[in-house]
Amino acid sequence: MQLNENLAKSESRISKLNSIVAQKARQLVIAAFNEGIYIVIVQGLRTMDEQAALYAQGRTTAGSIVTNARAGYSYHNYGLALDFALLADDGYNVLWTVNDKWRRVGAIGKSLGFVWGGDWTVQKEGIVDFPHFEMCFGLSINDLVKGAKLPELEEDDDMNKVLEYEDWAWTELDCYLGDAYNDGTLEDWKWVQSVRDKTLTYKDLLLLKVLIDERRRKIA
């Protein structure tokens, strides 16, 4: 699996996070990839209705209890938390077994400023949550409930930022889009040129990945 493919699998969820958290989440995916670990963000921003439904599970609806947080009392509700899982080498199957790779991702996340749920204890936090990362900027849930202002990146839209890739990753992406252009899946050369000029943005990459995957799916 190529780096751009790995990133694209999570971008729709990452893009809805707080802009600073989103930037760190992308760095997490890239750093893990660089160590040969594929991850996918499976949960990011969670609406109040989604949180209420999740809290009801195992209480007033079927299923097991999976959260102790009511609507408004999860960092997910404010775009400050995400959950990840490992991806198998095929890039498709999600792996939930907590192993050395999983713990390494936990360490990478902490180095980026995240709090990792894998460090929690039942005695203190009430749960050990291996997939969970959060970045709360020193704000408590009560602060957020009361409307505390969250810090954001200076950019108006983090999705419009140029990809923060190393040269080898730009080369990889050049091959990916070049192949798509050569086989007719991608019709406009400007996208390949934007990679060679190193001006492609996160938003461009997400849209192109969706476009290419959908066209190839229809052909298959």
Layout of secondary structure:
Elements: H1 3-14, H2 19-34, E1 39-43, H3 48-56, E2 81-87, E3 94-95, H4 100-111, E4 115-116, E5 132-134, H5 141-145, H6 167-182, H7 190-196, H8 202-219
Antiparallel strand pairs: 1-2, 2-3, 2-5, 4-5
Keywords, please?
single chain; 220 residues; alpha+beta; 5-stranded antiparallel β-sheet; 8 helices; 5 strands; globular
How would you describe this structure to a colleague?
There is one protein chain. The protein contains eight helices and five strands; from the N terminus they run ααβαββαββαααα. With 220 residues, it is of the alpha+beta class. Strands 1, 2, 3, 4 and 5 form a five-stranded antiparallel sheet that branches. The longest helix is centred in the last third of the chain and has 18 residues, at 202-219.
* Largest sheet data: 5 strands, antiparallel
Task: State the low-pLDDT regions, or none.
Answer: none
- From the spread of the alpha carbons, the general shape counts as globular
The percentage helix is: 40-55%
Mean pLDDT reading: 91
Overall structural class, as computed from helix and strand content, comes to: alpha+beta
